[in-house]
Amino acid sequence: MSRTMIEVNDVTMRFHMNNDKIMSLKEFVTTALRGKLHYDEFTALDHVSFSVQQGETLGLIGRNGAGKSTMLKVISGILKPTGGNVAVHGNVVPMLELGCGFDFDLTGRENIFLNGAILGYTEEYLKEKYGEIVEFSELGAFIESPLRNYSSGMLARLAFSVAAMVQPEVLIVDEILAVGDAEFQEKSRARMMELMGGGTTVLFVSHSLDQIREMCRRVIWLEQGHVKMMGPADEICEAYTG
Amino acid sequence: MRKKQAADVNLKRVALWITGAYALLAVLLYILMGYQLHFRESRGNLAMPTAETGTVELVQGSAVEQRFSAKIQRLESVTVQWGTYYRPNAGTVTIELFNEADGTLLMSGSFDAAAIAEGGTTEINAEEPIETAYLAPLLLRITSDSQPGSAVSPLMSASAKEEGFSLNLNGAPTNGVLCFSASGEDYIWTGLHYWEFAAGFGLLLVLSELFIWNQHKKGKHSYVINALIAIKKYGFLIRQMVSRDFKLKYKRSILGVFWSFLNPLLTMAVQYAVFSSLFRFDIPYYPVYLITGIVLFNFFTEASNMSLTSILGNSGLITKVYVPKYIYPLTRVLSSLVNLVIALIPLLLVALFSGLLPTKAWLLLPFPLLCLTVFSLGFGLILASAMVFFRDVQFLWGVMNMIWMYMTPIFYPESILPKSVARVLEVNPLYYFISFARSCVINGVSPEPMAYVQCVGVALLMLLVGAFVFYKTQDKFVLYL
Question: Is residue B122 classed as helix, strand or coil in its secondary structure?
């Protein structure tokens, strides 16, 4: 049962921080010629290693700028680490930002398929789930009209429904997203909890220690790119607040 | 649980499909290329020298004899140019071509001197292409039964000199060369060995399939299998993105898709109006010539412009979800391809209206288009990654694209280029694709096999370079967006 889903080996992520980004060829050549092409380096992650087992919900806590978001981006493959490597066995759905890739000139239905394809689902699977997604979003007949006619609440509901109706092997969550009116918020919160409790491997970032305690058995505490502590949820949360 | 993505591809079926498709294409190509696969215009054809003076008044009893030899494997015709002294003439002139090695008469013809105009030409043809004349000592002999005062005269160039040629006027050796040309065909080596080639490549294909199959069984990863998995995995995404591009392009326009159809027609109409009255290029089927160039070049421009912004324009996605980054330029090129296919309809309509009849060579048209697509993809990959690092590229490319357009014979014939500039055509890949397409549509025949090799070679080279540049830089994209 206990298959390793995410392996993070000695990952280091460094960014160049030159004062102003060189965006033109001329600038590049002139600064290079003047020998001023130096970079300040910023280390966002410093030799971080951990692994996540199948079905486990791992919590990530830390202050702003501790490297939590960078870690999530490295795991979801958006950033390539400067050193070390990451192996993820299975499909990753990053719930970092909802509705990315939505096109406002397309209808809700077209966007469900487009967004679903971007998140890595097959055509058959989306067709099968289409009814559920529409029903969950409570959009009704609006599903056939272009997104530019949607209210922001409707957009958020559609985005959430696409992201949450699917059951990925690895789910990456940056704060529990609750959108829409009070009723829908309750529904979406319940759905998130259901997803995270239902055998999926989850990587969960939150500033709410209550949620972390509730959802996770194991927690990693990042500070300035280092793993400060790693262990059972209660223990780490106590140390973090203390 | 979510259905696992079918990550394993049915290798056996794919291999069978590829092998079958290859065999079918090899046979199809053989049929479609037909005559052009075996023969091409001889490289040893003799061009007519520029006339400077007349030879002798060709009266009864006089003879003009030109000895020459040519590297023509299948000699078909000889043409002679005439002067008339600007007067009406009478009588009959006879042109004969002998092979002096064995004294045989190869071809001959008689012409009415009255019908010959000043500077006009007469041509004698062989009944069957002559295969024995290659580098043989040939004698071109011109005689007549005309009376003095009403006889024509073959023209000559006194300053021209050719190795091994000699001109005798009424038996007297003379400096210079007669104004004549000889033409024929050469065998194409590739054509003679077509089936050996086809079988060789087929064998190579099967062997590499077996090799990959073996690797796969051992559990090794190979690029080919990864690529197949990617096609299967991302095929749906690519289709979705192409259909989005296509839907968006003509969203909220009244004529919609019809514009893809109308655009090349209108461009052609404007250029036709301008260039047919202003410059008067002497090109047969000028509208077809124009629209072929326009459709192909427009595709290249559209595909490269769309790829240029493909990474930058999708920065919102790239920084949030992992999708292989080549998908973005690839989908842009593919959506341009959809437009290209639609634009083929007006192209073929114009061809039909101009009086061209469909030939089997029209079926070869997908070949240059496919090569052009591969080329554009390679080029687009370079543009897309360059654009991420240097935003100047978009402005630079705008100018470059214009220069490229003028360097490509789209609305002018390639013959008006001076010799020094004509070299540029040889290094202009787009010219290969366009002239290939023109040969299929206008001449109705396949180009010679060399053109196929050039098209495929140029396209693959560009794709390789593009893929390499893109692959090497793609990890840094996200830092610069």
Answer: strand
